[in-house]
Amino acid sequence: PNSTELNNILTEFERIVLVHPDVAFSLYHNDSEIFNLPIAPLRQRIISVFEKKLNEQLLSVKVDTAIVNISGFIGKPEASRKRGAHQYFFVNGRYMRHPYFHKAVADAYEGIIPTGEQVPYFLYFETDPNKIDVNIHPAKTEIKFENEPFIWQIIAATVKETLGKFNA
After folding, report:
1. Contact between 145 and 114 (Cβ < 8 Å)
2. Closest by CA position to 157, among listed 81, 61, 88
3. What H or E segment, with its residue span, contains residue 71?
4. If we measure between CA atoms, which residue out of 84, 7, 25, 28 comes closest to residue 51?
5. CA-wise closest residue to 122 among 59, 41, 52, 164
6. What SS3 state is found at 94?
7. Residue 167 DSSP code
8. Rounded to 5 degrees, what angle do the CA atoms 81, 77, 92 make?
9. C-alpha 129 chain-centroid distance
10. CATH number assigned to the domain comprising residue 89
11. Can you provide one Gene Ontology molecular function annotated for this UniProt record (predicted)?
12. How many angstroms separate the CA atoms of 37 and 116, rounded?
């Protein structure tokens, strides 16, 4: 595959391996091994896929509510960068794009990181499948939740609380 195709393959590969740390993966390109990922805890999988220094830059996040359980990692403020931060949402084991929830994360960092910068995050949502609609977009990466404003508040509050504990 050409470089565009390879980048698309790598993007999909990341989306799959980040929700299945309980599965070993190998990826080859032109007979060269690009990735060899053993079964590992989620944090280890993330740093194996991206970069070792991420390990020191991630803060653990976990909140359980009646509507949604959210777990994963957010970046420490010093992990911010102008572009290229690794930002991932997953719901019930599948990758999703969610600009509204992204704004909840970004708003929680307002005043903490320089304007226009972004931080890495890897947030995993578990919810009742009947409370989401995956048919918003043909690629099924955009997902609509019941109670989105409530979930937005949970995300913003959880990120702020995690950052508050770190900065305390």
Report:
1. no
2. 61
3. strand 68-75
4. 84
5. 59
6. strand
7. H
8. 85
9. 19
10. 3.30.230.10
11. ATP-dependent DNA damage sensor activity
12. 33
Same domain, 64 and 5: no
* Adjacent-strand bridge partners of 29: 32
Question: Which two tokens mark 1?
Answer: 């595959």
- And the tokens for 114? 């320089």
Residues 56, 132: one domain? yes
- Residue 123's alpha-carbon distances to 59, 89, 96, 132, in angstroms, are 11, 5, 10, 17
Question: What is the residue-level pLDDT of the chain in tens, covering all 168 positions?
Answer: 688 999 999 999 999 999 999 999 999 999 999 999 999 999 999 999 998 899 999 999 999 999 999 999 999 999 999 998 999 999 999 999 999 999 999 999 999 999 999 999 999 999 999 999 888 877 778 888 999 999 999 999 999 999 998 876
Residues 134, 155, single domain; the answer is: yes
Range of the domain at 12: 1-49
What is the count of structural domains for the chain?
A: 2
Q: Are strands 121-127 and 87-91 parallel, antiparallel or unpaired?
A: parallel
The amino acid that residue 126 corresponds to is: E
